């Protein structure tokens, strides 16, 4: 069977070729389809970036309008899917609610599940981009006991999501354009990151020719973990802990992390498998954090704690030697909090952003004639052959 080599965590094994996203971890470079992330964050919209990731090129005005119209026409959830939310406990975390509802989409749309039917994939792509924001907003509304708001298709994707999340049926919802733009930029920054844990999961599940909804649902579950997308929630909880238990003093916390005193405790929002330099996304998020707090007139002591923590860690040999820098999750939570999102929703926002990347990778995988079912090997470390021992002799 040839030589099998051990590569735990796939640190040096490429599982596919891909033309979607380029990362140079040493130089701190990130590009989608060749376009630098800072240019997209400044100039693009989330739907335009989604189009770029999925179809490979920036759309013309006509292509973008057609794409936007298609997505807006599919934002409603089936009334039966709405009832699905009633089955979850009131305090359910919205991430498993989101993954369950996305998984359930394959029961509602059985007409378009064939991975090799181009029109079906196109329809599932649009349905996902349109419905995931609605599902995410409903998961939140359910958790606070408020009524669901139907989408308003005269609004853009981000504005519609904010209205469904924060609006009330009895009142008009006033959108703050600076806040909507800040959220849009965050979604663009999260839109793809090549073969991360959740995207690899989407590809692996899809490699068995499971449908797009099933594959994306698996990706959402992979994203939930605190070492991946769940880190944005974990960062905020860490900052709150430092505020409460250490009186905002970051020194003792950093010392405990580097002396590995609390078993497994890490500086959340720091470190990355690929970036051994400042995460280019974190640079943009940090600038955004300052601006959006000023716009909203919010002062948040957690931002001061985060900045002190970053300063302390970046000057500390432990972090310098290991090339640990802030990643995308370090400052996002402070912004989400200022916008009014509860901590539990942070990873859902990451999922909203990552959705086009997952779809683009699944489609690239399905269209690649070189794709084989994902099936890693192992190095067996268990017992050699032994004879069955009867119950009385054990
Ligand atoms: N705090 C303290 N020490 C750390 C950290 C951290 N955040 N990250 C890595 N290290 C240490 C680790 O203990 C190890 O030290 P030693 O050699 O003494 O054992 C060394 O650095 C190498 O770490 P590793 O675990 O081999 O690195 P990895 O590439 O497997 O892990 C990571 C990458 C992102 C999982 C990790 O850095 C981490 O757990 N960070 C905190 C969680 C986090 O912020 N995750 C979000 C990642 S970015 C967004 C996303 O993709 O979701």
Automatic annotation (TrEMBL):
Keywords: Acyltransferase, Transferase, Tricarboxylic acid cycle. One of its GO terms (molecular function) is citrate synthase activity. Pathway: Carbohydrate metabolism; tricarboxylic acid cycle; isocitrate from oxaloacetate: step 1/2. InterPro entries: Citrate_synth-like_lrg_a-sub, Citrate_synth-like_sm_a-sub, Citrate_synthase, Citrate_synthase_AS, Citrate_synthase_bac-typ, Citrate_synthase_sf, Citrate_synthase_typ-I. The keyword DNA-binding does not apply. Pfam families: Citrate_synt. It comes from the Bacteria. One of its GO terms (cellular component) is cytoplasm. The active site is at residues 272, 329. One of its GO terms (biological process) is tricarboxylic acid cycle. It catalyses: oxaloacetate + acetyl-CoA + H2O = citrate + CoA + H(+). Gene3D superfamilies: 2.20.28.60, Citrate Synthase, domain 1, Cytochrome P450-Terp, domain 2. Belongs to the citrate synthase family. This is Citrate synthase. It comes from Pseudonocardia petroleophila. The lineage of its organism: Bacteria, Bacillati, Actinomycetota, Actinomycetes, Pseudonocardiales.
């Amino acid at each position: 069977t040839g030589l099998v080599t051990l590569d735990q965590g796939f640190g040096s094994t490429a599982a596919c070729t891909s033309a979607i996203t380029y990362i140079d971890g040493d130089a701190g470079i990130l590009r989608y389809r060749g376009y630098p992330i800072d240019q997209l964050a400044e100039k693009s919209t989330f739907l335009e970036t989604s189009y770029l990731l999925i179809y490979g090129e920036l759309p013309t005005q006509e292509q973008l309008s057609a794409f936007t119209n298609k997505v807006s026409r599919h934002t409603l959830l089936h009334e039966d899917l709405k009832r699905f939310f009633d089955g979850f406990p009131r305090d359910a975390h919205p991430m498993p609610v989101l993954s369950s509802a996305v998984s359930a989409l394959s029961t509602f749309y059985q007409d378009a599940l064939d991975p090799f039917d181009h029109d079906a994939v196109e329809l599932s792509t649009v349905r996902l981009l349109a419905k995931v924001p609605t599902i995410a907003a409903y998961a939140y509304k359910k958790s606070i006991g408020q009524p669901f708001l139907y989408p308003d298709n005269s609004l853009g994707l981000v504005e519609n999501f904010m209205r469904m999340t924060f609006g009330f049926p009895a009142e008009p919802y006033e959108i703050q354009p600076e806040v909507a733009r800040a959220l849009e930029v965050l979604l663009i920054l999260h839109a793809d990151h090549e073969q991360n844990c959740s995207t690899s999961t989407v590809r692996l599940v899809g490699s068995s020719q499971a449908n797009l909804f099933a594959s994306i649902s698996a990706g959402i579950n992979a994203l939930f973990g605190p070492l991946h997308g769940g880190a944005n929630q974990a960062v905020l909880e860490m900052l709150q802990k430092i505020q409460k238990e250490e009186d905002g003093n970051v020194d003792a916390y950093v010392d405990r992390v580097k002396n590995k005193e609390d078993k497994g405790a890490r500086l959340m929002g720091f470190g990355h498998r690929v970036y051994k330099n400042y995460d280019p996304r974190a640079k943009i998020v940090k600038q955004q954090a300052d601006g959006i707090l000023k716009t909203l007139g919010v002062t948040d002591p957690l931002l001061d704690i985060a900045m002190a923590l970053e300063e302390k860690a970046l000057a500390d040999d432990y972090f310098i030697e290991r090339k640990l820098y802030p990643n995308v999750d370090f400052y996002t939570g402070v912004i989400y909090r200022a916008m009014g999102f509860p901590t539990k929703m942070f990873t859902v926002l990451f999922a909203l952003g990552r959705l086009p990347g997952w779809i683009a990778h699944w489609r690239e995988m399905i269209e690649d004639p070189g794709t084989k079912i994902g099936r890693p090997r192992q190095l067996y470390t268990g017992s050699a052959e032994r004879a069955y021992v009867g119950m009385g002799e054990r």
